[in-house]
Amino acid sequence: MSRASARRTAVRTVSHRGRDDRGRVLVARLDGAGDVLLAGPAVRAVRTLARELVFLAGPGGSAAAELLPGVDRVIEWRAPWIDHTPPPVTKGQAADLVGRLAGIDEAVILTSFHQSALPLALLLRLAGVRRITAISNDYPGSLLDVRHVVDESVDVPEAERMLAVARAAGFELPKNDDGKLAVQRPLPDITGDLGHLLGAGADAGSKGTYVVVHPGASAPARTWPAERHRRTVRELVQDGHRVVVTGNERDLTAYVAGDVAVDLGGVTTFAELAAVIDGACVLVAGNTGPAHLAAAVGTPVVSLFAPVVPAARWAPYGVPTVLLGDQEAPCRASRARACPVPGHPCLSHVTSEQVVKAVRELTQ
């Protein structure tokens, strides 16, 4: 059995009808793409009993939600209490979501430890949702039917934390499901538009033909310096690797790729990016969505991880990983988006030589 076939088998879901049918179930995760991908095991657990699974995502996570096995439909909505550039709260905005949630029978709200599920629970109640499950350390009153309380002082991998919420709601993974991250397959065929750039070995499922370097991140505090990325790309090429640079910031990817690597900046959809990473032997990236996308396609990761959030919760889940960065730096657990410490010491001390060595470790 091929690796791709094995992954498809591992994430197969079963929908039960009749006595165990829980109707149309909504799973909500309203922040970034990586957070949505980490919700994958919980989604597959819910899908075992849901007649239809609807995923509620924010603008930054909807493309990732489209890739999750078990998702039938995605609703995109920008939550004023989650988004980093929040829109104002208006009656019309709330009414829009309430109307789009019509017909939902049950909901499982997934949140990070610093987020509240209660604003969404209120809107779900107004939409007529009969049963709602979420983590809430605050008293939820009648907003929740299943209140899952966790000890937030204990760092649990985010994928496992969200799966525990689904279990509290009464949903379990199928016995043949490995509980890892996953994407729907087949992924887009990139042998056409992107194949001429990637060269030989760009076929889906052909692991190990190049290294992907993804220099960007949604928060500056999680970003390794661009000149370090550029130097690393050159040293990886000198070490015998073909290198592909990805990201949305075209100026950044062009600078990092230089004249020695393939620059895919701004030319891939999220699903195409998954296919590109699926064909790589290693991904080099910070704590950002593509690191979790690599985990979902089974590609090892060199993780340039700033400790503004705990690596124990948000490091790439279920794949071989080399974690680089000072996890005890002063910014630790600050949740900062802009580095609060002069000199960005958690990542600035990481060298290109360390990254190249880590790539060697993961490819040998």
Percent strand equals 5-15%
Shape call: globular
Return the average pLDDT rounded to an integer.
89
Quickly give the structural class.
alpha/beta
Percent of residues in helical segments? Answer: 25-40%
CA radius of gyration = 21 Å
β-strand number: 12
Give the strand order of the largest sheet, numbering strands 1, 2, ... along the chain: 3-2-1-4-5-6
Give me a quick take on this structure.
By secondary structure, the protein is an alpha/beta fold.
Explain this structure to me?
Helix content is 33%, strand content 14%. The longest helix has 13 residues, at 226-238. The protein is built from 15 helices and 12 strands. The chain starts with a helix and ends with a helix. The strands form 2 sheets. A 6-stranded parallel beta sheet has the order 3-2-1-4-5-6, sandwiched between helices. A 6-stranded parallel beta sheet has the order 9-8-7-10-11-12, sandwiched between helices. The model is unreliable at 1-19 (pLDDT under 50). Helix 9 (226-238) runs parallel beside helix 10 (250-257) and helix 9 crosses helix 15. Helix 4 (62-67) links the parallel strand 2 and strand 3 (73-76). It is an alpha/beta fold.
Topology:
Blueprint lengths: L2 H8 L13 E6 L3 H6 L1 H8 L4 E6 L4 H6 L5 E4 L14 H10 L5 E4 L8 H9 L4 E5 L10 E3 L9 H11 L26 H4 L12 E4 L11 H13 L4 E3 L4 H8 L4 E2 L6 H9 L3 E5 L2 H9 L3 E4 L6 H4 L6 E4 L20 H4 L3 H12 L1
Parallel strand pairs: 1-2, 1-4, 2-3, 4-5, 5-6, 7-8, 7-10, 8-9, 10-11, 11-12
Keywords:
15 helices, 364 residues, 14% strand, alpha/beta, six-stranded parallel beta sheet, disordered N terminus
